[in-house]
Description:
With 204 residues, the chain is mainly beta. The chain is built from 1 helix and 10 strands. The protein is elongated, with a radius of gyration of 19 Å.
Amino acid sequence: MIRKSIALMFLLLMTVSAYAETPSKWSFGVKAGLNISNAKLTMDGWTDISNESVAKFAFGLTTRKPINKIWSFAGDVMIIGRGSKMSGKVSGVTFSEEAEISNFAIAPSVQCQISDYDKNPIFLSGGLELDLNSSADWKSGGSIQDYQSSFIYLNLGAGSTYKLTKGSIVPELRYTMGLANESSASGVTFKSNGIMLSVSYLFD
């Protein structure tokens, strides 16, 4: 699934590059970042459950279209790493493991400029993200049982646009909150959240 996703993104990038050479109100580009991911886990019969954040990479394609001088539409298609270090007790036995998750994400959003549009504008953003699971495994080996194939996140962020002679650099900080249980197992709740620091290059 991951190889197919990368191949699809490569084909999309070639198409994006072709369109980027022609005048258009749409801006297309590439995006990469670091996702500080965590997950809230609860399980019937388990006690003293704790979760620690882990750092995962994210990369993909991005696009943006100004609606007016204040509002813009934006969208990302990315492969995002998620996960969490977890520990807990059941029947007096301590459990400790790290979840390693990779998702193919589609994330449309709306951006609102809060500073001068022509001078490195700062923007706030918000939107929903659909994740399609590519892989979900325990670091010690074996797949995570009953992990859902798709789920929805809420994204809230802020960033800025730095215009170059050709193109633009867009750093962005984004908080992601899971809206649905990512496990279909009875008595188990698994919800991911994270903070992503990313940088995009737009072919203006």
